[in-house]
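ok trying this again, last paste got cut off
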Amino acid sequence: MARPSRPASDLTHRRVLSIALPIVVSNATVPILGLVDTGVVGQLGQAAPIGAVGIGAMVLTAVYWMFGFLRMATTGLAAQALGAGDRAEYAALLVRALLVAVAGGLALVAFQLPVFGVAFAVAPASAEVEAMARDYMAIRVWSAPAAISVYGITGWLIAAERTRAVLALQVWMNGLNILLDVWFVLGLGFGVEGVAIATAIAETSGAALGLWFCRDAFRTPGWNDLARILDRAALARMAAVNRDIFLRSMLLQAAFVSFLFLGARWGDVTLAANQVLLQFLHVTAYALDGFAFAAEALVGQALGARQRAALRRSAILTGVWAVGISVGLAVCFALFGGMLIDVMTTAPDVRAAARAYLGWMVLAPLVGVWSWMLDGVFIGATRARDMRNMMAVSFLGYVAAVAVLAPPFGNHGLWAAILVFFALRAATLALRYPSLEASASA
């Protein structure tokens, strides 16, 4: 199950690609599901079901995203346990993650009414759309324990470099969801409720399949050692890492949400253009995620094994590939960005506005790659406090950049501020990297 830690000489480009590429392919399946959900309910011939599924999915995705720390923390902690050769702790970490996931999921089920109430207070919709969305969420929320468990399972598998299993899990969940969407909505006429049932079944079956992929953990004594699982020091460390990653992620989300809201100050056309260009940023993130995840696994294992040279080589090899990908994306955006904009919108004014700001998206991968990859390095090392503190500094710098650049330069100033945010995230984490590396030989 838990492969022994390897020397730095065993950290090859091939090993990095074997971890990263399945994640890149896995990420490519994510937007397909959203397209099918929308397309299936779009066949009903009414606008309300499309809006209901869109809002309901957005609300639940946002709520589940709050548990994203579980994936990152599990990867870092489990990779370090693997690097240290502690198989019992590696198995116990999976059970701890599952306990957190199930408890969080059951809490959402229990408090679904106030959670949904707050969501619709923040993002109100028509009475018809809200009623349908509530029906959708009332069904889907029952799979919350399973959906959140997948975060922990995925993190645990990434720590062991088992990203092919992560790909299989993602393909299974999305593929089953699509098939059930078509059957329940178009075949059986279940409408919006059919989409919710399909997703709930897919998420539950995904958690079951994920546990099957993790079956070796349940052959290790540590998985049912309650004293180890509930060890106060281990739980406190996991809680601290989860807390700091959660706070860091909330600041990150606040920056992007504020970017969208601030863009609206210059009108609907500018807002739409920003939304179109943000899809380029999503593509960049999906492409680089695989190499950031590889950094998490390899850095975590190296730190657990106290191999400083392996840690440095892990950061360098994954970084080399990420920089190459980011350069390729920048070139593609420069050459084909206009064509992609035309595919995403037919509105002439939005097309023209998006082209006016396209240069910022050419720069974004080149500036942002360093922050994405250092995030992976620090997650693998579970240096969550550094991530939290440096994100706070970067967020304050972003706020200052917006205040200085947006008034005189408008939306161009806003885009410049978000790139300043990327650069600050990279620079502040880079300042803490020597301390991280030194801890591998402490």
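PB: full thing came through this time. Confidence is low (pLDDT under 50) at residues 1-5.
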